[in-house]
Amino acid sequence: MIRGTRADGERGAIAILSVVLMLALIGVGAVAVDLGQVYAERAQLQNGADSAAIAIGQQCYKNQTCSSSYAGAWTAAAQPLVNGNANDNASAIQSVTFPVVNGLQEVVVTTSTRDGASGAGFLTPLFAKALNVAPATVGAQATVSLKPPGNGGGFPLAFANSCFDLQSGQKAGNIMQLEWKPGMTCTGPSGAVIAGGWGWLSQSGPCQATTASGTDYIPSNPGNGVAQLQACQPILQGWIDTINAGGQVNVVFPVFDQAIAQGAGGQFHILGYATLRIYGWHFANAGSPYEFHDKASDLTALGINPLYACSAGDDRCVIAQFVRFDTVDPSTGTGSGQDLGTTVVTLIK
């Protein structure tokens, strides 16, 4: 009779233990892979929700309302943005709401899983289903806020609201000439435009002034020539290239309602920000790019009334049109600026 030895029994136990450990490792690996799938799905859904919220926020602004009656059409228009952020080109917009929080309009978009192959509203595990793990439903949410800019940096020129009608931010205006002449003053709430400055701001960087509405007075940069604009040459040339190519140049300018002192000690109080569509300008008697589409013949060729042409001599002007404008450019900032028709669509969560 052959008897088993103790070593033979231990070999059997080790084999069983090895199988159990291998199954456990496979199970842990399967769960890890499927968790990675869930995290990747959530990231794709978040990107889609962000894109849809920004797009719908812009539609709210353009239609001057965030009425829920538009939600269906705007959701359908934003669906390709959500799908485009998914690896399988399929996601669902679960809901779109338009809450008003602290007086500011918001847009909240919630997205959820949709299987690109089956159309199911859940994510099927790749491996963990062998362990009887239920399918997962993944979602994400994005919120944007619509509010006027309150601070930011940009072209170092401000306009006086008392000189030009820039305060009616509800609709686009007609083409107009924003002109400054030596000694020019405007009757406003607190006095006159700074003589010799025409709203030129002290630059915080090359052709850039940092401003904030409602809180501080921004220093002026007195002068009326090329010296203060040399750093702006690339920007002005960019405007020319864009217009000549058939594009539009929309520039956000600070608007001031108060001006104190004169010359180098002058300061502006920023009321808010308005967007102007630029057609021409005359910033200095120095040729291009400091002068562009500023003569009567230039405007006639563009179909613009030649009476808006800039005068000769030391007069300075911008030929532009006030426009309603939305931006997602963070350089315009957000804050407590007055609504002058420019709105920043900001992703807040």
TrEMBL record:
Top-level lineage group: Bacteria
Residue ranges constituting the Putative Flp pilus-assembly TadG-like N-terminal domain according to the UniProt record: 12-55
Residues that span the membrane, as ranges: 12-33
InterPro entries reported for this sequence: Tad_N
Pfam families tied to this protein: Tad (PF13400)
UniProt KW keywords: Membrane, Transmembrane, Transmembrane helix
This protein's name: Pilus assembly protein TadG-related protein
Annotated source species: Sinomonas puerhi
Lineage: Bacteria, Bacillati, Actinomycetota, Actinomycetes, Micrococcales
